[in-house]
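seq/struct pair 1
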Amino acid sequence: MFDLGLAELLVIGIVALIVIGPKDLPMVFRNVGRFVGKARGMAREFSSAMNQAADEAGVKDIQRTIKTATNPVKSAMDGVKDAARDVTSSLTDLDPESETGKLAADKAERAENARKIQAATARAQAERKAQEAADALKKAEELEAQAPKES
């Protein structure tokens, strides 16, 4: 729509500084920003209303039908993807006594153990940092006690 580059914005800013003055310039920029925000909001609202009207009219269904008719290879690939998704979803319902079920259980167990190790490591790190902070505080108190007191 409008294509303003850095040079154009710089020229506009310099002219605005000269014409409006440095005192009123922030207020003008604030008002311009509000106006631009309102205009964008109205454009967004208009666009969403048009998309909603198109959805209600069934334009997307017609568009999808035309795309599948013009590109049969993509349509076939979509069918393959759907079939693969169905197969992978059926693999989640495994018999726990089968080899695949045992492997899936082992994988879940390893993932749980990894989470436990990460939690224990994070806890140990937090405890170590807390101990270091306590030691530093103790050392600071000792040094403060040794320092000569000013009257």
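seq/struct pair 2
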Amino acid sequence: MIPPSLRDRKPRRVEPSRPVSNAITQMAVDHDELQQMFTAFENTRSVNNKRFLVRRICTTLVVHAQLEEEIFFPAVESVVPQATPQHTAIKAMVAHIQSLEPVADQVDGPIQVLAQEMKEHASTLHTSLFPQVKASDIDLVELGDRMARRKAELMAQRA
């Protein structure tokens, strides 16, 4: 039998815990996921897998670049004034790759070049920019929340 004091009590709602993610962590995760996609592309011979990976790589890169340009770089400009995104080449490569037939041999070379560009871009951020931003007083959790909300919006638009 349930005691009367507990019987009338409403169950307490427990909010699901969400991991606290800062802006730098989110960007690093994107970089890792992109590297995994490039590796998967390199290792597959399946036409359908290549098609899927080309679309996923291009979408992820476009969204990632947009987040950096709209939110991350403007927020860190006071700490690292010379930090401006160099996405022109990456965006041009993505547009070129999207114009190609992903099943043709002609997409393999551009994807390899794009993978190398992305690797160099990520390396530059991780070795020079991120340490300076981490040492600043920028609220990286708040910045990460803004980036996560915007990323969800952008991905929903592309779905």
